[in-house]
Amino acid sequence: MRRRWLWTACALVGLAELAVASLVLHPNVDPVYRAYFIDRSSDCWPHQTPASYVPGTTLSFVYGRGTPFDANKICGWFYPNAHGTWSYGRFSLLRFNFAPVDRPLRLTLAAGAMVSAAHPGQRVAVSINGTRLGTLLFDTPEAVVKTLDIPAGLAASGRLDLRFDYPDARSGRELGPNEDPHLRALRMVALTLAPVP
Amino acid sequence: MRIWLRGCSQILVLAPAITEIAAVLAELTMTTAASAAPADSPDIALLAVPVLLALSGAVLRFCAYLSITAQPSAQGFVDAMCVWDCTWYANIVEHGYQAYPETLNFGGPAGIANWAFFPAYPLLVAAVQRLSGAPPALLGMLVSSLLTLGAVLVARPLFGTERRAYLLFAAFLLVGPFSFYFSILYSESLFLLATVLAFRLLQRGKFVAAGLAGALLSATRTVGVLFVFALLVAAVGELRHRPWREAVRRPDVLLGLLLAPAGLFAFMAWLYFTTGDALAFAHIQRAWDREMVNPALALWAALASPMGQVREAPLLALASLAGLALTALLAIRRDVPAAIFCALCLGLALTQGVESMLRFVAALAPLGIMLCRLLAARRWLFWLSFVGFVGLDFAFTIGWMHQHGALM
Question: Which residue of A1, A4, A6, A40 to mutate against B (max B Cβ within 10 Å)?
Answer without folding.
Answer: A6
